[in-house]
Amino acid sequence: MDQKLRIEWVPANRLYLNPANPRKNDAAVPHVAASIQRFGWQQPVVAKPSGEVIAGNTRLKAAQSLGLKEVPVVWFEGSDIEAAAYSIADNRLHEFSEWDDAELAKLLSELRVEDALDGVGYTPEDIDALLDEVTRELSPGGLEDPGPPEPPVEPVTRPGDL
């Protein structure tokens, strides 16, 4: 598949939300809006030529909440069934990833020190809770002592012991 991604800036009112979107995203809108305000558009909306959004409903809602007149769009070139499948994949596939909480806590702590948390979706309280959790997991009382190692099944020989 050798396809070049073409992004077009279109009037926000040219697009409309997917009426069959199974993803409940209203709670995410202010967070996405904050991200757009801080970082700008780093990911376009994906829409059918009709204007129906198939990926980026939350981004469109965020743009509308910010009063943005134009949004970046990639026009989906496929059948309606392919559009529905892509819409589900776009929302589902990230759920297979997991956070490394210790690394996340480290990065968020660095951002907090630099007063750079705007638009990342974490509050100072979220970070405190994450740090507490990571600290409990890493503390001596948080990990079980495995005890002494088991002796080897075969005797250990050293050079010259023969």
Write structural notes for this entry.
- The protein is α+β, with helices and mostly antiparallel strands.
- The chain is built from 5 helices and 4 strands, in the order E-H-E-E-H-E-H-H-H.
- It has helices spanning 29-39, 57-65, 80-92, 101-113, 124-138, and strands at residues 8-11, 45-47, 53-55, 70-75.
- Strand 2 (45-47) and strand 3 (53-55) form a beta hairpin.
- The longest helix is centred in the last third of the chain and has 15 residues, at 124-138.
- It is elongated and about 80 Å long.
Short summary:
With 162 residues, the protein is an alpha+beta fold.
For the largest sheet, list the strands in their spatial order.
1-4-2-3
Which assembly state applies to the chains in this document?
single chain
Describe the main β-sheet briefly. Answer: 4 strands, mixed
Radius of gyration, Cα only, in angstroms? 24 Å
Q: How many β-strand runs?
A: 4
Rough shape?
elongated
Count of domains: 2
**pLDDT under 50 segments (min length 5)?**
none
Rounded to the nearest angstrom, the distance between the terminal CA atoms is 63 Å
- Residue-averaged pLDDT, rounded? 87
CATH third-level topology of the largest domain: Conserved hypothetical protein from pyrococcus furiosus pfu- 392566-001, ParB domain
